[in-house]
Amino acid sequence: MVLNLVDEGNFHYNSGMPFSVSHDTFSGPLALLLDLIERQELPIADVSLAKVADDFLRYVDEHNVPSDELADFLLVASRLIYMKSRELMPYLRIDEEDAAAAKLEDQLRLYQEFVAVSVKLEERYGNRVMYRRPEVRSVRRDDQVSFLPPKTLVVSSLQETFQSLLKRLEPFFALQETSMERVKSVEERMDELKSVLASRAGIRFRDVVARAGSRVEIVVSFLALLELLRRKHIVATQEHHDADIVLERV
Amino acid sequence: MNDLVIQLEALLFVATRPMTMKQIAAALDASAADVSSALDELCAMRNGENSGIHVVQSEEGIVLATNPSCAQVVQRLAKEDVDAELTRPSLETLTIIAYRGPITRPEIEMIRGVNCAIILRNLLMRGLITEEEDRMKLQPVYALSSDAVRHFGLHNVTELPEYASLHGDAKIDALLATMSDSAAV
């Protein structure tokens, strides 16, 4: 683990008073970072960020960060590690990373402003509510049973509706039926998955590969799934080890 | 007093949903400019401590609502659910949208530092924010809903504390622009 790498050998420094990570859960890496900095009453600056790098890493290590937030935490973690390394070895600088580190500082300051003002907003919520006239729905009497179709309803409109429903289901059937003569690329498979999920709430991975002709096709589908996950277009859940993988649009 | 102002008030009284400026102009058969100044006049007339009815404006449109100081009394009769529970992440996201709305999801995520897809969906379901397609930005933009503005006891988001400095701050805009250049994720 990276934490060990940095702490090994000769690179020790005194980070001030001993500090233990709280067990609060934080809504994002900036929230955590801000908390670490403010608890030690440090200003938002490079030096402070480098100081709290270890605490930040320890938090990520010890807590179950939700999988959809993990990438964001790791991004900030990597910036902090760089900043800490810069403190320890000032002669080793990477321009790109310097720029990114400076942005982290600005980003944190901006976030702090919004957090401050969100507290004021919280006080206002539900406290001096301005009610509006309720929407009144017409109440139908129970003893009156009547058939009130819309005026424009015709037999052909029922047919059209059913046909358009079938059309919406087409991509789903196509996904299962494709006997791929050549193996589709991951990109193509991703597009197929996205269009299916555009019209359906969820889909099981087993359905996606139901008619796969070869193992390669299954692998392509799985790679497409992983890439869509990485891009946060979909969410995948699996109840237990051998359960179905369920894919849902974000 | 101007006829248009009177008609505007009557219209808003009857409307069951917030009305957009466009809808009002069509209903009153008036120009956008005329409607705008009628609205200003109506707000000046109504949004004070001596009126039980106030005017609330949001991205969704205009709606009549009760004087916020009457909240306690009205609450006994009101049929509206004001869910006063806001989690920290929801509150932060709502704050960003309130001050910087209409705003896109990537911009929100840049300020919060973490993705907010699920929170946005939640806030949408609770009717606290609206989602509209923005032709310039080619992606959905989010703003406080009329319901949210009312639940905060505001006539308008511009009444938020420090609104001017956080909403139109050139420094923030510049920062968001530079952050989007190096967005890694």
Characterise the protein shown here.
- The complex is a heterodimer of chains A (250) and B (185).
- In chain A, 57% of the residues lie in helices and 5% in strands.
- Chain A has ten helices and three strands.
- In chain A, helix 2 (29-39) packs across helix 6, helix 7 (155-177) runs antiparallel to helix 8 and helix 8 crosses helix 10.
- The two termini of chain A are 32 Å apart.
- Chain B has 185 residues and is α+β, with helices and mostly antiparallel strands.
- Chain B is built from ten helices and five strands.
- In chain B, helix 1 crosses helix 3 and helix 5 packs across helix 7 (117-125).
- The model of chain B has no long low-confidence stretch (mean pLDDT 89).
- The chains are: A mainly alpha (250), B alpha+beta (185).
- At the A-B interface, helix 2, helix 5 and helix 6 of A face strand 2, helix 4, helix 5, helix 6 and helix 10 of B.
Low-confidence stretches of chain B: none
Question: Helix- and strand-based class of chain B?
Answer: alpha+beta
* Strands in their spatial order, largest beta sheet of chain B: 3-5-4
Count of helical stretches of chain A? 10
Quick one: overall form of chain A? Answer: flat
- The number of helical runs of chain B is 10
Largest sheet of chain A: 3 strands, antiparallel
Most extensive interface between two protein chains, with residue counts? A-B, 42 and 56 residues
Identify the strand order in the major beta sheet of chain A: 1-3-2
By DSSP, the count of extended strands of chain B is 5
